[in-house]
Amino acid sequence: MNHAAEMNRLLRDAIAFQSISGHEGPFTRFIADWARAHDFEIDLWQSSNDDLNAHPLAQARHLPLQNRPTLLIKLPGSGDGKSLLFNAHADVVAAPHPGKWSHDPWRGTQVGNNIVGRGACDDKGPLVSALWAMLALKDDAQLRGDVLLELIPGEEDSVGIGTLTSVLRGHRADAAVVLEPTESLPRCASRGGLRFDILCLGRAVHGTVKWLGQDAIAAMRNVLGALAELERDYQSLAPDPLFASYPIARPITVDKIEGGDWQGMVADRCRCGGYFELLPADDHAAWKHKFSADLLQKLNASTQNIQITFSEDYAGHRLEPSHELCIAARDATLDATFNAGTAPFDFAAFNSGCEAGLRAALHNTPTLVWGPGSLAQAHAVDEFVDFAHVQLTAGRFRNLARRWCA
After folding, report:
1. 332: phi then psi, degrees, rounded to nearest 5
2. Do the domains 4-190+316-405 and 192-314 sit in the same CATH topology, yes or no?
3. Domain 4-190+316-405 belongs to what topology?
4. For 117-174, what is each residue's pLDDT tens digit?
5. What are the pLDDT digits (tens) for 4-48?
6. CB-CB contact of 370 with 187 (8 Å)
7. Domain parsing of the chain, residue ranges
8. Disulfide: which of 62, 75, 92, 137 matches 119 by Cβ 3.0-4.6 Å?
9. Whole-prediction pTM value?
10. Alpha-carbon distances, residue 232 vs 132, 283, 286, 363 (angstroms)
């Protein structure tokens, strides 16, 4: 495949945009300009909170959508073939301690084959693979169905909210590939999840007479221990073989803790936030109840002292490996065309929540998760993607489109 130098530059330029959740606009418009310059059809629009709030799948918790546009890029097919939609998120997580990085996180530095920077593998490397495939398909006479790419805001902020902006715009397809780092192999399932907030309430007193108060920070230590026990308790409940290679069936991760208002006092409140990731078949309402009841039971506590709420709820998805999309993806990956050959593999799940669940839940859209890079690098200091894998995956995406859309 040609265009290697251009796509390398595009990826490095993409990383230079600090498109942290809430600030995706300049980057999305940059990609729109690139697509327009290459004669793709585009739809660039700005959704409002009012557009989404009436929808039952809209999340209550998300950053305002103002100045966070959504982009749809279209390569029309020549006939009545099936359509294929790539989904990428424009936003990245922050890089709050750039001094810990070996290179500027917002520069896109090439080190050997690797391109280092925030968003390199989550999600700008996978995005460039899909754009590269679409560029290579432009003059393909076999392409009968449309190839589409939506660049959505907000995945790192609130899973599903960005894809919902595109759904409500009316964009649909016969199959979808959600672009995430999967070591360049297609994954046929993804996790659903719940974001939780836990508030421990105590009674403040001076630290020198702390036995007269109730220490909310000490209570939170017990909560953290109980959450670790719950993660172990849930290990063997209704397992899914597509997730069998991962050591934790339903991860429970605390990513924020805050407590105490002033020094010298026993804290009267302490709050933690985190997320509880589930398997595709798990009933979310039932698991909310179970999680809350089991945690309170382990703590021998009541809701007067421990308050548990859920602020985000996103769907997982599961596609059987025998589905025709999986068969097309396997053929696309094993085909040696464009240097895309690899050894046979078994389909497995993507070990995270992502945008795959929303279209699968709303429209039963057959969906894969796929892209270069690894979750081991995503959100990490010195995040990187191997540019050779960006090119490799672009070839596989082209193979998939030729099979699915022709």
Report:
1. -65, -35
2. no
3. Aminopeptidase (3.40.630)
4. 999 999 999 999 999 999 999 988 789 999 999 999 999 999 999 999 999 999 999 9
5. 999 999 999 999 999 999 999 999 999 999 999 999 999 999 998
6. yes
7. 4-190+316-405, 192-314
8. 92
9. 0.94
10. 43, 19, 18, 34
